[in-house]
Amino acid sequence: MTELAGANIAARERERAQNWSRRALYVALIALVVVYSVPTFGVLLSSVQRDREISRHGLWRIPDEITLENYERALGGTNVPNYLLNSVVVTVTATAVSIAFGVLTGYVFSRLAFRGSEILYLIVVAGLFFPPQIVIIPLQQLFSRTIINDTILVLIVVHVAFGLPITTMLLRNFFSTIPGALREAAIIDGANEGQILLRVMVPLVLPALAVLATLQFTWIWNDFLWPFILIKNDAARTIMAGIVLLKGPYDKAWGLQGALSVIASLPTLLIFLFFQRYFIRGLTFGAVKG
Amino acid sequence: MKLSLKASQRLWTFAFLVVPLSLYFVVVIGPLLATAWLSLTNYTFSAFASPEFAGLVNYQRLTGDDYFHTSLYNTLIWMVAALVLPTGGGLILALLLHGRVRGANVFKSLFYLPITISMIVIAQTWQWMYQPDWGLLNTLLKTIGVEKWKVFWLSTRGLALGAIIFAWSWQQVGLSMVIFLAGLTSLPGEMLEAAQIDGANYRQSLRRIVIPLLLPSSVVVIALAVINSLRSFDLVWVLNEGGSGSSTLAVQMYRETFKSLRAGYGSAVSMVLFAIAAVIIVIYFRRVRRLEHLYD
Q1: Do A40 and B114 touch (CB under 8 A)?
Q2: Alpha-helical segments (H) within chain A
Q3: A154 in contact with B, Cβ within 8 Å
Q4: Cα distance from A260 to chain B (closest Cα, Å)?
Q5: Is the pLDDT of residue A286 over 70?
């Protein structure tokens, strides 16, 4: 009896200790997340203050007055709305086309293997690891000889090509999980490969398409290198290159810089908020891009 | 005439592949080979002089170029830091947030939110931390009474690279956390319970069970971190253009090529970058392809 009571007390003690350690963990986590979020908070803070205030009192304090002037200035000119529009067109088009291409190649590599297809697949997937710098010079030279030079079409072409490794890999893996019997049944019914892909396979990989859409949208929207190098014409510039360009003449326009950062981040933040599940799934599935 | 099933499949295969793969070879593989060729020439973008074969001259010059030594060294430092900061930090966050923490999802979201933000905006964010006059770090130093509080974080040799890598790690830690969390979720819970019943304490089960079983996720996290560190251009460029000894290979490639117009020499820097990436590609395919099914 006493032994049992002793065990009971020990168990209760342990539980109490666990409760305490859980509470401590909780406090530590809250502290950690607050510290972690401080830099993000700074951008918000700068976007609602006047430059005058910042240069006089510094940024990191409760502002005397909250102003939306910076946002009005950012969106008021013609540049920024135009950059945003270019970003939307490039991102949406390149995302859609790269996924469509990935459906085609992923399907072939998963179901229509031929001699040498394994090597071809490896060559495509290796592209995941290529730092884009290694193709910049020839690409720039190549585009300069075409009529699409210095237009947003260049950006779309590059993003589709560089999107192919991830879309191919992810979709190949997804297609491989679909039972082969479905395809065989369709063949017996007289369907050709085009019909099988469109009517049987694609409807079954819709979640994969959602995953890829969120990933591709985020990466393409956030890209800076390609527009920075390939676009000289201001009318074809995207928002990320635009922000960096505007930093020069507006060196001390801290508020404007803050507002631009917030505006440029909104689309990907919204995608993240609404499609978080897909986004995370994509990152953990074929995660090889940042 | 009706095509045989085999012939029809061949035709479809060709139709599916021809456009995407042509594009890939024209935009990615072709230019890669062209860069390899350019690295053996004295190309300068001149419209009047076509690239002339110069043998290994560019590579020879790399060996004696101090700026290149700094860039290479910094890139390697960055890779090592990538293994410690975001990878280690992500692992710790994942272990803390895995299990029954109330509101874990909110915490997770806040930690991986920066992954969705552009490096350009991350750079902006950290400028408000490092700004010499009123940045947060210097404001704090001033508040606690440090006399020489005005530290030039981004323009002091020895500090600049560290400051940039720290900002980068701040963004990347969420990515490692997400992948480790996925790895943890796939761990068999019974195993941990069994260990607990056998009297294993937290540290023991961590070392004997959790860490070994997280190995596949670690391979992905590490490959990612290293590859992302090779790409590091945006952040460095916006924060200090690779000045104060913070240049990386990607930054030097840009400077040589587009500032100094030495495209041949810049291509040689690119090929060094590619050589490092190639090592990782080989390691990845050797190790991860065997583990790939874990993520299916």
Answers
A1: yes
A2: 2-47, 51-57, 69-76, 79-111, 117-126, 136-144, 152-176, 180-188, 193-195, 202-204, 206-222, 225-230, 239-247, 254-285
A3: no
A4: 9
A5: no
Other C-beta atoms lying within 10 Å of the C-beta of residue B109: 15
Cα distance between residue B42 and residue A205, in whole Å: 49
Confidence of residue A288 (pLDDT cuts 50, 70, 90): very low
Residue pLDDT, tens place only, A32-71: 999 999 999 999 999 999 988 888 888 888 888 899 999 9
Residues from chain A that touch B95, judged by Cβ atoms under 8 A, are none
pLDDT given at position B199: 78
The Cα A64–Cα A287 span in angstroms is 44
Is there a contact between B231 and A131 if contact means CB atoms under 8 Å apart?
A: yes
- B:112-141 residues touching chain A, CB 8 A cutoff: 112-121, 124-126, 128-129, 131, 133-136, 139
Q: Nearest CA of chain B to the CA of A204: how many Å?
A: 15
Predicted-complex ipTM score: 0.90
**How many structural domains is chain B composed of?**
1
Residue B47 lies in a domain: no
Query: pLDDT tens digits for B111-143?
Result: 989 999 999 999 999 999 999 998 999 999 999
- The answer, for B283 touching chain A at a CB cutoff of 8 Å, is no
* Chain B touched by A137 (CB under 8 Å): yes
Whether the CB of A253 is below 8 Å from some CB of chain B: the reply is no
Q: Indicate whether A273 pLDDT > 90.
A: no
> Is residue B144 in a domain?
yes
CB contact, 8 Å: B186 with chain A? no
Contacts of A257 (CB under 8 A, 6+ apart): A46, A243, A246, A247, A250, B124
CATH of the domain at B186: 1.10.3720.10
Q: Which range marks the domain in which residue B97 is found? A: 62-295
